[in-house]
Amino acid sequence: MTEEISLGLELMFVGMGIVFLFLTMLVIAINVMSALVQRFFPEAPPVPPAHPLITSNLDKSVVAAITAAVHQHRSKHK
Fold first, then answer.
1. Pairwise CA distance, residues 34 & 38, whole Å
2. Can you say whether the dihedral through the CA atoms of 70, 72, 74, 77 is positive or negative?
3. Total number of domains in the chain
4. pLDDT score for 57
């Protein structure tokens, strides 16, 4: 009986050791891949949002046409 218990404990510790080793290797692999991705593909710096009131690139006739279309749509769908 004691031999069976000792074999069971030995199997338990070997199994737990293998799982611990695997999880340790997994954590190391994830950290290495994260470092590689950050090194070769760094995040782009954030682009400041364009101010909505700046319309220097738009032609005044295009702005007038858009304004008229929005006004017409709103008047039809009241």
1. 6
2. negative
3. 1
4. 66
